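@channel sequence for tomorrow's demo:
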Amino acid sequence: MMKISGETQRDQADNDASEVAVWDWPVRLFHWALVVLLAGSWVSAEAGVEFMTWHMRCGYGVLTLLVFRLLWGIWGSAKARFGDFVYGPRAVVVYVRAWFSRSPVHYLGHNPLGGWMVVVLLLMLLFQVATGLFANDDIFNEGPLYPLVSKGVSDLLTTLHKWNFNLLLLAVAAHVGAVLLYWLRGENLIKAMFTGRKSNAEYFDKAGPSAPLWLAALSLVAGAGAVWLMLMLVA
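structure tokens (generated this afternoon):
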């Protein structure tokens, strides 16, 4: 029995040595929770006005996650910080050119193009939630900030809310398509977003320190508290 246990430990050590940590638990939970809430928002919106309460709850959840991600992008783990993956235009051009060459450059974290895709998606999501707070459906439901604007402004924001969601779907489709394209070229980003690890290969960037989980919990509480305070102030 001791021999089997020792072999198992050595196998585990070999597996750990062949991989390197990249995405921490907070980033991965944020990603998949956002997927679930966006799906819930879409389904509840399509289901009819009687499910609009759930649509709004999903929206509050998305806003909570966005505030959390903003904070985690400032003081979170190394690969979660915006300063780690937001590159200048020159770096993006160099990366794209290399990607179509025979010597592509691999990044442990977000590559220059993927980093900007993350920023665009976060901004689109923030715009989606912000317009939804002022929206109305001309029947029974109104966003919590609806009383702060005129009916005309609310109607305009409602239209933008609907248009932006269609653009958001296109952006998500582009994101999924890029992930699949990377998979075809041997880089399994989906697995990395589940396990938090990538193969121990040669990367342009290096791994960095992880922030403590209590700081992630504090960031999440701050996000939930900000949304709760907003709702209480307009109640």
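heads up for whoever presents: The longest strand covers residues 19-21.
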